[in-house]
Amino acid sequence: MDYLENIWVRIITFLRETGELAEFSGRFFREAFRPPFEFREFLRQCYQMGNRSLMLVLITGFIIGLVLTLQSRPTLIEFGAESWMPNMVGISIVREIGPVITALICAGRIASGIGAELGSMRVTEQIDAMEVSGTNPFNYLVVTRVMATTLMLPLLVIFGDLIALYGSALVEYFKGAMSFRLYFNSVFDALSFGDFIPATVKSFFFGFVIGLVGCYKGYYCKKGTAGVGKAANSAVVMASLLVFFVDFMAVFISDIFYEL
Amino acid sequence: MATTTSQYVRLGFFVIAGSLLLLAMAYLIGNDQNIFRPTFRITSVFKNVNGLQEGNNVRYSGINVGTVEAIVMENDTSIRVTMAIGEDMLRHIKGNAIAMVGSDGLVGSMLINILPGEGPGQPIRDGDEISSFSRITTQDMLTTLNVTNENAALLTEDLLEVTRALRKGSGVLGKLLNDSLLAGDLKESFHNLKISTDQSRQAVTRLNHMIGQWRLEESALTLLMDDPAFADQLRGVAARLDSSGREINDLTQRLNGLVGGLQDGEGTLGLLLRDTAMAAEIRHGLKHLDSGLVKFDQNMEALQHNFLTRGYFRKLERERERERRAEEKNR
Is residue B228 part of a domain? Predict the structure, then answer.
């Protein structure tokens, strides 16, 4: 009986959180176009989320490119399709792996960071203090962060894609004696706007989801230090899950438009 | 936590670099699909496009020159494919070019290959239609392969029967394979053949050596073979020899007749040859003539010393002497 009750509670919690998140995102859109615009805070957040995450994204992307090529090579060689490596890796990275891996890294780094930061502010009643002093905490804390993640993630994805392709090209250069020029020619020959545009558009949504979930979890953090930790942790889990959900939706919609 | 100027600079660099990379990537992809360069359109009608899609590459003599822009079903047997080709190719593609649906490798995506037509042609213009060539489809190939397989099955069956017959030893080939005596004879025959061949080779070598020693350049045979005038002369000589031969033959026949007559004792000569009594009489007559001539010489000698005729003979000697002196003077 307790088991069923537990499931019921979880369902109710899930639905409540979904509703709260929807309300939170609605509030974001309302506040985003309402002055005052916290431009300096927005730029600071851009720097924190873009520049500070760049190295992590570059390293991860480079390794992903290397590993994907090294793992795929034996199979492609077995089929005598080694020359198709740039096409396969290029499409895989640009269409799916680059955006998703970058989004997951950012979900781990940014969402948890935002969750912890805003959670601490909530626990230490800084947010309450801002409300009392007449400053709009939502505008200052949430809108700037969500907009920063929304705009920075596509740029990070581009950097990640290119460094992953470079890593793959390095493997092909040293193991397959394929020149960089031929590699990148083959990649761009294989790619089309049907691959590039949906991937870029969904990167904006990934960034939006990561920022929104991080802010939501931190903004509604429960009191106590445990609440901060829980907010950071659940922000990562929820952001990662939503990234995959958005990815599924994006593939579904782009399939309709581009007939992939 | 305030943002410093260096952080702004780094952020600006990050945003600009990221945006430029985004644009560059879009440009490279779009450039490959002829989006950022002027294009012209040509069409071609196919019976079967084998899964060709909009956006597939168009190649001219193996170079990517454009993309498939539209595929429209005109009626139940013809499909019109519109291709967007880079304008820089306008002067290279002629009106007699042929479009063909192909694939990029064995597992590659479909594409259209435009092949140059034979002979000179008018340069193509925007909106022109070029002729198409439908390749053999996989289904056609499978049908042909099916027929080939059936034939192969029949051949295999026949081959199996032949092999069985061979193993049983029936027929000439079967005996050849199974009869050890025949095999021994054959082996011996081949051995003898080998010896004969060796000897023939040696004989030919000797003949070659002999011919090599002949001075063919200077021989009559070479003259006979190479000089047409000489051949004509020789032909004339042969003709004359033939005619002479016939005359000699006639003469011989006549002589044979004459000799036959002589042998039979016909005529004076035959009588002379055959009659021995007459020969004795002639021999006796000749003896008397000889003694008569001796006596005549004695009478003539006596006449030269006679005083009546001695003057005449002296006169003859004087004239001879005068003639001899005149000759010496002339020299």
Answer: no
**Chain B residues with CB inside 8 Å of A84's CB?**
107
CB-CB neighbors (< 8 A) of A180 in chain B: none
Query: Taking an 8 Å Cβ-Cβ cutoff, which residues of chain B contact chain A?
Result: 1-3, 7-8, 10-11, 14-15, 17-19, 21-22, 25-26, 28-30, 32-33, 35, 55, 64, 107
Q: A189: which residues sit within 8 A by CB, 6+ positions away? A: A87, B32, B64
Copy the structure tokens of residue A145. 């962060």
Q: What ipTM, to 2 d.p.?
A: 0.78
Residue A64 pLDDT: 94
Cis peptide before A198 (omega within 30 of 0): no
User: CB of B83 within 8 A of CB of B43?
Assistant: yes
Domain end among B89, B120, B135: B135
Work out whether the CA dihedral B19, B21, B24, B30 comes out positive or negative: negative
Q: Number of structural domains, chain B?
A: 3
CA B32/CA A192 separation, integer angstroms:
8
pLDDT tens digits along B231-283: 788 888 888 898 888 889 888 888 888 777 777 766 666 677 667 777 788 88
Residue B2: inside a domain, yes or no?
A: yes
Task: Mark the ranges of chain B whose per-residue pLDDT is less than 50.
Answer: none
- Are the Cβ atoms of A192 and B22 closer than 8 angstroms? no
Instruction: Decide: A176 and A77 in contact? Cβ < 8 Å.
Output: no
Q: If you measure CA to CA, which chain A residue comes closest to B7? A: A47
d(CA B236, CA B232): 6
Q: How distant, in Å, are the alpha carbons of A109, B256, B264, B266, B285 from that of B274?
A: 160, 17, 8, 9, 18
The percent of residues above 90 in pLDDT, for chain A, comes to: 37
Residue B51 sits in the same domain as residue B112:
yes
Residue at B253 is within a domain: no
pLDDT tens string A119-132: 888 888 888 888 88
CA dihedral (B57, B60, B65, B68) positive or negative: negative
Domain span holding position B148: 141-173
Query: Which one of B29, B32, B111 makes the best mutation probe of the A interface by having the most chain A beta carbons within 10 Å?
Result: B29
Structure tokens at B85: 């080709």
| Per-chain mean pLDDT for chain A | 88
Contact B19 A155 (CB under 8 A): yes
Whether A97 shows a pLDDT value over 90: the answer reads yes
pLDDT for residue A100: 95
Do the beta carbons of residue B78 and residue B47 sit within 8 Å? yes
Please report where in the chains the tokens 């939706």 appear, as a residue.
A249
- Rounded to an integer, the average pLDDT of A22-28 is 88
One domain, residues B45 and B128: yes
State the Cα–Cα distance between residues B102 and B111, nearest whole angstrom.
Answer: 5
Look up tokens 């050890």; give the residue.
Answer: B180
Count of other CB atoms within 10 angstroms of residue A161: 30
Asked if B30's CB is within 8 angstroms of A193's CB, the reply is: yes
